[in-house]
Amino acid sequence: MDLFVSGFAAFVIVLVLLAIVIVFMGVTIVPQGYQYTVERFGRYTKSLQPGLGLIIPFIDRIGTKVNMMEQVLDIPTQEVISRDNAMVQVDGILFFQVLDAAKSTYEVRDLERAIQNLAQTNLRTVLGSMDLDAALSQRDSINVKLLNVIDQASTPWGLKVTRVEIKDITPPLDLVEAMGRQMKAERLKRAVILEAEGVRQSEILKAEGEKKSAILEAEGRREAAFRDAEARERSAEAEAKATHDVSEAIAAGDIQSINYFVAQKYTEAMKEIGMARNSKVVLMPMEASALVGSLGGIGAIAQEVFGGTGGKSSSGNRSTTGSVPNSE
Amino acid sequence: MAEEFLTWVTGLEYWGWWILAVVLIILEVFAPSTLFLWLGISAGVVGVVAWMFPDLLWEYEWTIFAFVSVISIVASRIFFKKNPGVIDNQTLNRRGVQYIGRQFVLTESIRNGRGKIHVDDTQWAVEGPDMEVGEDVVVTGSDGTILIVEPKQ
């Protein structure tokens, strides 16, 4: 079929096609979280921000679609020799964010590989300069060191490395076992020391207790002795006073009253002697008349009381005793 | 087929243009690449023109369609630049800008215009007048991975 299209009509059709192509190529929708680099004849000119972006078709070209979100990068497991020659397996994780789309695209060829290798080599450097114990216990400082180095190194690439963290440090199995044994030994040592300390403390306490009790006992004895002495002193004083009182009374009164008491005692004593069983000793007054004499003293008192002739002192208030063994 | 297409193209009435516009906008809904939208807008505009000048040549109509397609993009771009509307989070994905106005303590003296501050569990390089460690600074701007600071007044 013959289809005639005038030149103008053909031009219009081409024009429409061109418009559609321009719309297709010139409008770029950049999603949030991304920036697109724009190259004019191959040379970088600008980065398209999120939203509606326009480029001039045929002249401009979208270069790279750069992710501007913070991203996580695994630092793969690798073997590192620590300063004290322990072979450990280390892996980590790294957070970074592209802040300059152009630099991250054109300053470095393979960004992720570059960061990964940088992190790996620096991990080796940092851990290689530490003892195993330090590496296991000072992760914070390791992280800070790594962050400093990697962040500075990646600055020319328009990156901000926000965190570098060591995930796992795995020493070889036999080393782990040895560490476990060491820990157990440490704990055992502590336990034994503590027990010994306990025993020592208890012994000291016991000895102190004994010492205290001995001291207290001695003090008690001393106190008692003091009191005893005092009691003796008091009784002696009392006796002296009594004697004094008696002698004063005698001096004031009559001698015969004494005689009465003496005679009483005398007779009582005689009765006691008489009652003593199986006594081999018999106490008898030298003069039997002395007993009678003492009775005479009583008589004298009676006379004195009932107004008779007084003042007659009885002879022989002394009673001499002698022991006469029973001759069988 | 081609003849039919050509008669359809040449014989578009104003309501034809509007149908085209609606169809294009529906396409835009299903394939959101903001591509058919401009063509749809353009078709709508041509529909208005065709309604005002019913005996306009179809070639002119399609020329208008082509031009308006391109112009509408540029116009909308200019319009959105002037009226960005309400954007909730201006600092989204702009790490450095988020810190503007905040105060920090220098962890490394600023020598020859470069120093360091400690920001939320990470370090940032800063640019500013020479200062000693421990002094307070205020972030006033950001340049890629470097924050621009001034001494706290």
From TrEMBL, chain A:
Localization, UniProt: Membrane
SUPFAM superfamilies: Band 7/SPFH domain
Span of domain Band: 25-183
Pfam name, any one: Band_7
Record region (Disordered): 306-328
Bias (Polar residues): 314-328
Ranges that cross the membrane: 6-30
Keywords of the record: Membrane, Transmembrane, Transmembrane helix
Entry keyword Ribosomal protein: no
Coiled-coil segments: none
InterPro entries the record matches: Band7/mec-2_domain, Band_7, Band_7/SPFH_dom_sf, Stomatin_HflK_fam
Membrane topology: Single-pass membrane protein
UniProt entry tagged with the keyword Transmembrane helix: yes
Name this protein carries in UniProt: SPFH/Band 7/PHB domain protein
TrEMBL record, chain B:
Keywords: Membrane, Transmembrane, Transmembrane helix
Membrane topology: Multi-pass membrane protein
Residue stretches making up the NfeD-like C-terminal domain: 98-151
Signal peptide: none
Compartments it resides in: Membrane
Membrane-spanning parts: 14-31, 36-54, 60-80
Cited InterPro entries: Membrane_assoc_protease, NA-bd_OB-fold, NfeD-like_C
Protein name: NfeD family protein
Organism field: Sneathiella marina
